[in-house]
Amino acid sequence: MWNGLMNQRHILLFSVNVFLLACWPGQAELQSELKPLQNLLGARFERVSSGPGVQIQHDADRAGLSARFAPGSTAGCVRLGPVSLPSGTGVLRFTGALSLIGDSTCSMKVIFSSRGVASEPVNVLFSGHAARVGDVFQDVFVPVPSAVDGATIEMHLKKVGGDVPALRLRYPCLIALRVPAARPPAEDAVLFRQAFSEPDGRADVVGKDTATFPAWSCVLPTAAGKSGPGLRATRAQHAALFALPDQQELVVRGSVSFWLKPLWDQGDARPADMVKLTRGGRGMALIRKNHGWSFLFVVWDRENKTHGVSCDLRNLVRDQWTKIEGVWDAGKGLRLIVNGVVLGKKEGTWPVESVGAVALRVGQGEHDKKEPAPYVLDEIEVLRTIEAEAFQE
After folding, report:
1. Torsion on CA atoms 228, 234, 235, 239, rounded to nearest 10
2. What are phi and psi of 17, to 5 degrees?
């Protein structure tokens, strides 16, 4: 199924590139008008170059390229740009099949410029796991500051292993997007809401911010959800990462809910993550199928110790939509609620700490060694408050 999705995306991007190839002049100037399908890298990726220490070779079909360390080099970079940003650009979107080969490492940065003056590099998040899997399409979304008219994305490579190609890019595309129009404000309690109704993967609500695009995504809605499209997650790279605003109260108490349709049989021992909250790279809250016997909800405290509750996995039936909710209060305990019934509960308290930005990973996790169990996910919601009756007997 994933191969079919990749083929569809290959065809889509190939069609876009063919269109651009037909209409792009030899030394075309970027137009000031914002065009959603205009690849800022050029039809033949003429705005992709190598920095010191790296050599680039274009693929025979001109649909991609490989980067190899120069003889004697252990570090270098590949540059996408510089490109001119049309007026009104609010988000820079990089799309492509990004593959890391061998033991080389890669970090991604963007350098914005205004009237020729460059800003300090800003780190850009992408899925390192998907890059290691290879040939997985990623969407990377970078918010663009105001009064910016240019940008360059740099992929910094470091050599660890033998002399092999360090990086492969297939169908790289850099697109300028406008910030989506503001939607009616959600209830104050709603921090995040995602119904997979937008084809570019943006969420319905992310706090009070307007930047509802994910930091990175390897998925598009691929199945019928509970209501409208949903996320079919069958591989570890089927995931999206959203950056949430600073949320001190969410560390103390909150809830995560979603609709889940299992695609696994009873006795299936494969694990699967559905939703995970992290802070500073450390775990904060997680809901998952815990191998073949239990469905687990766990939170981490200030000392990085876990507190969890679970229920029998037989409460989740294949091909049936099930409402899942995890509720936590650092002064009271945990609740795991399935179809409105509390099936896992734990009383207790734990220490919390101040927290900055929170990241929300939707879809499969990337650390399980076994192939994950498949499912469909829909209508995810994160609340920074909890219902009063959640801890009533």
Report:
1. 20
2. -65, -40
CA distance 316 to 323: 10
Q: What is the pLDDT of residues 235-291, one digit of tens each?
A: 988 999 999 887 778 889 999 999 999 999 998 999 999 999 998 888 999 999 998
pLDDT confidence bin for 225, thresholds 50/70/90: very high
Taking a C-beta distance cutoff of 8 angstroms, is the pair 322, 340 a contact? no
| Model confidence pLDDT, tens digit, residues 289-302 | 998 889 999 999 99
pLDDT, tens digit, 9 for 90 and up, residues 26-79: 223 333 456 656 899 987 788 899 888 899 999 998 899 999 888 888 899 999
Predicted TM-score (pTM) of the model is: 0.86
Amino acid at 289: K
Q: Are 257 and 362 in contact (CB under 8 A)?
A: no
First to last CA, the chain: 45
- Mean pLDDT throughout 112-123? 94
| Residue 392 phi, psi dihedral angles, 5° rounding | -85, 145
